[in-house]
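Sanity check

After download, print the first record. It should look like this:
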Amino acid sequence: MGALTWEKTTPCSISGRMTTALTLYSATFMRYSMAVTPKNYLLFACHFINFGSQSTQGVRFLKYWNYGGREEALKARETAKQGLQAAEKEGKNILQQGEKKLNEAKDQVMK
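Expected structure tokens:
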């Protein structure tokens, strides 16, 4: 169930070993819940959900570390940084223009 809370975090914080272990654990206990008598459907449902969540985390982990996700994230971060710098520069220009117009208006009022 812990994987459900990690869905929103960045893939770089996912532990591949732990995800693999928890996926196998959930699969094993899904099988066990159906092997006992009487069948334990609640245990099966809990481990089925956890198996799905851990599998999703495993796919996110693999995409990030093995299939180019990390490079895409780094490119996106660099693009965002450049956009922020351009916006900051434009904001400073607008501020300077506003200050210039304010000073002009102040000079006209003082005359």
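If your output differs, re-run the checksum step. Summary of this record's structure: The helical segments are 2-5, 16-35, 41-66, 69-110.
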